[in-house]
Specification:
Elements (H helix, E strand, L loop, with lengths): L15 H4 L2 H17 L3 H17 L4 H25 L3 H6 L4 E3 L6 E2 H26 L3 H10 L4 H30 L10 H32 L18 H24 L10
Antiparallel strand pairs: 1-2
Helix pairs in contact: 2-6, 2-10, 3-6, 4-6, 7-8, 8-9
Length: 278
């Protein structure tokens, strides 16, 4: 398989992100994604988007590796934005206590306030997705599990998370193999086919993919049970490492960003930055 094809697999790319602890990257992802959902200040969100994209560039993750996932996220983001506008076209005006119509009339008139709110929602996606990709593609599952266990999480939960991360690339590879098998049987689900035909083809892939995943889960659970996994309260880790200087630096920067977000909450008098106040 081409290395540039879609594959959410960990690979050491030789950057400082690969040397950082998995627990550190998880905390950074949770804290930065969380603060972006709390502080809906467009200026702050743009800063976080730029920061996320810069770090994604540093990680050396190629777009071809994640293009399918990004397109999928953008697709659902557009659906989400449309549903927000259809179900609550006046929500932006309520939030910002003003109403400046750009075009249209009636309840579905597009206002500057609604547009700003939708832009903020979009920016949240562009903050979280690069951070999630960085975490998934630069984190060794075994090292991540040991890091979680070190910060107090049960080793059973840590190992379960490790297994989930470890099998993501296996599932994507199997999806591609089943897809090629379906196409060999005459089911055209490539870009040449229409959207709905590709959608039906994808549905046909999910059934064998689900069955094979269940079979894999059963095999792994039996193997773990035979090795008496969980019989003891503690366990050792092959990839156990202490937090390094890069980890403390990342956590310090994340805390600074969160502190800046809290300051904006105070300055703005709430979650939203209101540029429409005259």
């Amino acid at each position: 398989m081409n290395n540039n094809s879609f594959n959410l697999a960990y690979r050491d790319r030789g950057t400082w992100l690969d040397r950082a602890s998995g627990a550190t990257k998880l905390l950074a992802f949770i804290f930065l994604s969380g603060i972006s959902m709390i502080v809906l200040d467009t200026r702050f969100l743009i800063f976080l988007v730029i920061l996320s994209l810069i770090v994604l560039k540093i990680s050396r993750v190629k777009f071809s590796e994640v293009s399918f996932l990004i397109k999928l996220v953008v697709f659902f983001m557009i659906i989400n934005l449309l549903m927000i506008y259809v179900l609550a076209p006046g929500y932006g005006a309520q939030l910002y206590h003003s109403k400046d119509i750009i075009f249209g009339s009636g309840p579905y008139a597009l206002t500057k306030q609604e547009l700003l709110y939708l832009v903020n929602i979009s920016l949240e996606y562009f903050v979280a997705v690069p951070l999630a990709l960085i975490f998934l593609l630069t984190t060794n599952p075994s090292e991540f599990a040991s890091g979680l266990n070190r910060i107090g999480i049960s080793y059973k939960i840590s190992y379960a998370v490790s297994l989930a991360l470890r099998y993501i690339p296996d599932v994507t590879k199997e999806y591609q193999q089943i897809s090629l098998s379906q196409q060999a049987r005459g089911n055209e689900i490539s870009k040449k086919a229409g959207f709905f035909k590709r959608l039906r083809g994808a549905a046909a892939i999910l059934v064998p993919l689900l069955l094979s995943s269940i079979d894999r889960i059963e095999s792994v659970s039996q193997a773990m049970e035979l090795r008496r996994f969980g019989a003891k309260k503690k366990r050792s880790w092959y990839f156990a490492e202490q937090l390094k200087a890069v980890d403390w630096l990342v956590l310090f920067i994340v805390l600074l960003i969160m502190f800046g977000g809290v300051i904006l909450l105070v300055v703005n008098g709430g979650r939203f930055w209101n540029p429409f106040i005259h």
